[in-house]
Amino acid sequence: MSATRRRPLVSGNWKMHKDHLETIHACSELGLRLGRDESAAVDVSIHPPFTDLRSAQSVIEAEGVPVSLGAQNCASADSGAFTGEVSAVMLARLRVEYVIVGHSERRAMFGEDDEVVAAKLRAVFRNGMVPICCVGEDAAERDAGQTADRLQAQVRAAIGDLPGGDVARMVIAYEPVWAIGAGEPATPDDAQQAAATIRSEVAEVAGAPAAAGLRILYGGSVGPDSAVPLASVSDIDGLLVGGASLDPGAFTEIVKGVATTLR
Ligand code: PEP
User: Between 257 and which of 11, 43, 162, 228 could a Cys-Cys bridge form, CB atoms 3.0 to 4.6 Å apart?
Assistant: First the structure.
């Protein structure tokens, strides 16, 4: 199914780390480290906390840092009486390009079910941005041999009746819950098998062109050593990096590795 290579994407999920001053420094450092060779070969996004987005936007634009701005979450509604929420409208105004939805930490700790994730995904599209929708099995599901069932159910619930053109533009991140923050990623073979399952489910729900266009990332304990083998398998189009993305040096190494390999 993956005869043609899609443009790779490496995304850094900073989670609840770095205040806006630390973000300013990190963005500047990325600007010094990332060159034209990388940006010619790979898309890069960083996803700082909401309070840092305006600062990150200013540095990225003023210094020409070759990264796209990303967010970690958004509300499903565009405005209203939703205390503490941040809407996709607001993110789009900050020139955010990518929004993570359905991260396993939000599913597990903040009660976001498949229905909420699907509504957020649609809010991202409604406001002209690209969703990075996270799916993945937990350790119990893996041990019970339910990985494929879990992935198929999550994908089907997320993309449901979306037009094929939207699905082709979106990103799905395969993030096995047991690998996140564990220090040990999935093997490239396991990541490929999961990504192939995701892509064929997308083909069934949204059609073959959507499945051929959609980018699938692997996420879960990626570091400079594991990045290239994971990003090299045929159905993986890039990486979602948590812990290692907090260090501009390590993140740059990952981006350079992917750029060199998938150029
Ligand atoms: C994540 O939480 O999206 C993630 C990939 O984390 P880590 O790389 O730290 O496992």
Answer: 228
Helix (H, G, I), strand (E, B) or coil at 99: strand
- Pocket flag, ligand 1, residue 108 (CB < 6 Å): no
Using the CB atoms, write b or e for 174-198: b if 16+ within 10 Å. Answer: bbbbbbbeeeebbebebbbbbbbbb
135 close to ligand 1 (CB < 6 Angstrom): no
Nearest ligand 1 atom to the CA of 103 is 3
- Atom of ligand 1 lying closest to residue 182 CA: 10
**22 assigned to active site:** no
242 lines ligand 1 (CB under 6 A): yes
- CA 191 to the chain's CA centroid: 15
**pTM (two decimals):** 0.97
The distance between the two most distant Cα atoms of the chain, rounded to a whole number of Å, is 51
Tell me, yes or no, if 175 is annotated catalytic. Answer: yes
Q: Which of 161, 53, 158, 170 is nearest to 115 (CA)?
A: 158
- Residue 208, amino acid: A
Distance between CA atoms of residues 79 and 65, nearest Å: 31
Q: Tell which atom from ligand 1 comes closest to the C-alpha of 219.
A: 5
In sequence order, what DSSP letters do the residues of 238-250 get, joined into one string? EEEESGGGGSHHH
Judge contact between 222 and 241, C-beta under 8 A: yes
Tens-digit pLDDT profile for residues 175-185: 999 999 999 99
Q: Mean pLDDT across the stretch 5-26? A: 97
Determine contact, residues 151/137, Cβ cutoff 8 Å. yes
